[in-house]
UniProtKB/TrEMBL annotation:
The keyword tRNA-binding does not apply. One of its GO terms (cellular component) is membrane protein complex. Residues 19-239 form the ABC transporter domain. Keywords: ATP-binding, Nucleotide-binding, Transport. SMART domains: AAA (SM00382). The lineage of its organism: Bacteria, Bacillati, Actinomycetota, Actinomycetes, Micrococcales. InterPro entries: AAA+_ATPase, ABC_transporter-like_ATP-bd, ABC_transporter-like_CS, ABC_transpr_LolD-like, MacB-like_ATP-bd, P-loop_NTPase. This is ABC transporter ATP-binding protein. It comes from the Bacteria. One of its GO terms (molecular function) is ATP hydrolysis activity.
Amino acid sequence: MTVQSARHRAADPVTESMVLVEHVSRTYGSGDAAVHAVRDVSLSIAPGELVVLVGRSGSGKTTLLNVVGGLDKPDEGRVVVDGREVSSLDERGLVALRRDVVSFVFQTFGLVPVLSAAENVGVPLRLRKVPPRARDERVALLLDLVGLTDHADQRPGELSGGQQQRVAIARALANSPRLLVADEPTGQLDSATGVAIMGLLRAVVEHERTTALVATHDPVMMALADRVVRLQDGVLVEE
């Protein structure tokens, strides 16, 4: 990196980052019952980077993911995602953020039981009123990407846990999000299936050119990450 580019990075971190977290804190409750879930956390994630967030249960991982994705607001500090200051958006702006910029994958798959795998993947595209032909092409591409072309017509109850998570990942990618936020995406899966899902996440980040922030306990996911960030009692303690 040249001196000039280094100065530019220092001068304007927002333009260099897909995610910028600055001195964010989030507390639930008050007084003796207060829980300081996140304390003065600062973090920058570059476009196209896969960052894994690790820490024990209760360390603040889910809270930080929710704040970054606009599901929760910080008490202090600010969050900027793709140039948008998430922490200051109104409800309409947050809906647009979650529709156009950020997608989520959780350990609970959240699929619609009465819809087929293809129909589940197509739900976000229907909400955006994507024309049927373009929608079908995108769904077919994503099912192929996650290895489920042959299961397109099956409903969630006819799929294994790993297959359901693959459908959930494909659905999260339907609208070509700039940022994928995943909270313990292998938490309900056996170890072998979990390894396959983690490898898939790495592959889709590269294929779709998506930035990803993934909370996990799994060392395999850490090995696949570009960077590992550790939280302890709500504090960023290691990178």
